[in-house]
């Protein structure tokens, strides 16, 4: 591993989301001298990967990352094939739909189709979700042995009183996900939010993504029609990707 690249990547990870940190904050988190961090930040800033606050000494992610992320998303075949099916899913259920893939043991939302009711909603494409506390993540964990092993080998963050933090309990739940090809989440990551998700399969029969819908916890458990439409969307996306059967074996 090239040390300077590793350090630069860690800086970008520290700044993800809406975080804004100063040189001393970054130096403390990385256990590096401030002078070293300052040089790395200046290099990242020169390429637009990091930007300094207009009036302040803190730094945030830069505009070049938006361009790079857009290019990355455009190369994902599963996202391109899922766009129409997800829009139909949102229209049919009246709920927001999400498409997620594994990113270092978390879930990266690679597409978000908003609720069709016209209300203002936060865009979620590009967000990361905790795998153990999200319906999308549970689907990916259930079918990916390596991802599951990595996640269960570390402490599971306690995000709400409903978060499953016991590895044995989560493993048992994932067995049910494999049996039903369906995962649920109820206020496990964010209070007031619930979700369900189903696996997306490619032509090799591998689960490469999860598609799901988000709903207020007051509407949980979801109507049978919502479950049917979600499963149909997952089946259709998988068929569009060349899968010969669904649910996955």
Largest sheet: 6 strands, antiparallel
The low-confidence runs, each spanning 5 or more residues with pLDDT under 50, are: none
| Strand residue percentage | 15-25%
SSE class: alpha+beta
State the end-to-end distance.
Answer: 37 Å
Rounded average pLDDT: 91
Strand order of the largest sheet: 5-4-3-8-7-6
Q: What is the number of E strands?
A: 8
Rg over CA atoms, rounded to whole Å, is 20 Å
Broad shape: globular
The topology string of helices and strands comes to HHHEEHHEEEHHHEEEH
Helix content: 40-55%
- DSSP summary: helix tally: 9
3D structure, described in words:
Helices cover 44% and strands 19% of the residues. It has 249 residues and is an alpha+beta fold. The strands form 2 sheets. A 6-stranded antiparallel sheet has the order 5-4-3-8-7-6, sandwiched between helices. The protein has a two-stranded antiparallel ribbon with strand order 1-2. The chain is globular. The two termini are 37 Å apart.
Quick structural gist:
With 249 residues, the protein is of the alpha+beta class.
Secondary structure layout plus pairing:
Blueprint: H1 3-14, H2 23-30, H3 34-46, E1 50-52, E2 59-61, H4 64-74, H5 77-93, E3 96-103, E4 106-113, E5 128-130, H6 135-143, H7 145-152, H8 167-180, E6 183-186, E7 193-201, E8 207-216, H9 224-240
Antiparallel strand pairs: 1-2, 3-4, 3-8, 4-5, 6-7, 7-8
């Amino acid at each position: 591993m090239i040390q300077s690249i590793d350090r630069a990547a860690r800086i970008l990870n520290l700044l993800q989301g809406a975080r804004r940190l100063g040189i001393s904050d970054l130096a403390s988190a990385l256990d590096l001298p401030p002078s070293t961090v300052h040089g790395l930040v200046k290099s990242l800033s020169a390429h637009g990967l990091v930007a300094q606050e207009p009036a302040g000494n803190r730094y945030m992610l830069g505009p070049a990352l938006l361009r790079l992320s857009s290019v990355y998303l455009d190369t994902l075949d599963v996202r391109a094939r899922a766009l129409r099916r997800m829009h139909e899913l949102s229209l049919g259920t009246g709920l927001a739909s999400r498409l997620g893939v594994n990113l270092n043991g978390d879930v990266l939302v690679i597409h978000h189709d908003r609720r069709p009711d016209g209300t203002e909603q936060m865009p979620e494409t590009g967000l990361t979700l905790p795998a153990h506390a999200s319906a999308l993540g549970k689907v990916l964990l259930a079918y990916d042995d390596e991802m599951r092993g990595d996640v269960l080998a570390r402490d599971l963050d306690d995000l709400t009183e409903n978060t499953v933090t016991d590895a044995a309990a989560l493993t048992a739940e994932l067995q049910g996900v494999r049996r039903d090809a369906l995962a649920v989440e109820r206020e496990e990551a964010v209070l007031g939010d619930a979700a369900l998700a189903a696996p997306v399969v490619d032509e090799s029969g591998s689960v490469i993504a999860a598609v799901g819908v988000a709903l207020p916890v007051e509407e949980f458990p979801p109507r049978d029609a919502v479950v049917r439409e979600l499963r149909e969307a997952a089946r259709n996306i998988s068929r569009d990707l060349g899968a010969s059967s669904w649910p996955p074996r």
